[in-house]
Amino acid sequence: MKQIIIAIDGYSSCGKGTLAKFVAQQLGYVFIDSGAMYRGLTLKLIENKIDISDLPAIENACKDLFFEFKLNQKKGSYELYVNGQNVEGSIRNLTVSNLVSEVAAISLVRKHLVRVQQAIGKNKGVVMDGRDIGTVVFPDADLKIFMTADSTVRAKRRFNELTKAGMEVSLTDVLANLKKRDYIDSNREDSPLQLKEDYKVLDNSNLSIEQQNSMAMKWVRESMEH
Ligand code: DC
After folding, report:
1. How many domains, the chain?
2. What number does the ligand 1 atom closest to the CA of 113 have?
3. Which of 3, 94, 109, 159 gets the most CB atoms within 10 Å of its CB?
């Protein structure tokens, strides 16, 4: 079967990860959550008390960090390890979420992580989700999907996810964080989230997971035939 690269970009909490994971499982591909890498780096900056204005310290931190995605057999999904430590449990809390977009707007951070992401995808057979995957990381990706959904619908979904995981958060805070991240991600100077004409748009505000999955798989089949 032809090995392709699938880029899934879009706003925060649109379900990009859920879709990417599904598509990767269907094809036997590797799924990479590029946002997890920005989150992992942000977590390490917080832990090491590095201020986001201290660029030399951030550059050193980038050089010291080794990112790996390892398959969790039980969950059937890949989890991020930073320097050998599984960070999945701590990268999605609101402390990290509140800072990550600012960290992701720093050019030296992007340059470093984009290089790591490109190395992961060099053998193709990869589904990667993020904000700049189809524009910067893999501009020649065979299929580019842009995901979007109404912000209230997205905030409710994220709120349910976080409370289910035992975190105490309010819907108002989740919505505010989401809108702030959308704004920073779309307006930063370096590789902002942008809907270009070569993307297929998937608005899942009123779609079930099954409906969105079958829409995406139809595009996947079309891309493989080309
Ligand atoms: O997908 P996510 O919400 O976990 O991403 C966390 C943050 O990282 C998000 O605010 C934007 C940033 N990000 C990015 O700038 N580029 C990517 N390829 C992935 C994420």
Report:
1. 1
2. 18
3. 109
What is the model's pTM? 0.93
Between β-strands 5-10 and 143-148, what pairing exists: parallel, antiparallel or unpaired? Answer: parallel
Residue 225 lies in a domain: no
What sign has the CA pseudo-torsion 119, 125, 131, 135?
positive
Q: Confirm whether 224 is domain-assigned.
A: no
**In this structure, which residue's CA is closest to atom 3 in ligand 1?**
12
34 in ligand 1 pocket by Cβ < 6 Å?
yes
Q: How confident is the model at residue 124 (pLDDT cuts 50, 70, 90)?
A: confident
Dist. CA 182 → ligand 1 center (Å): 10
Q: Is position 124 within any domain? A: yes
Residue 167's pLDDT band (boundaries 50, 70, 90)?
A: confident
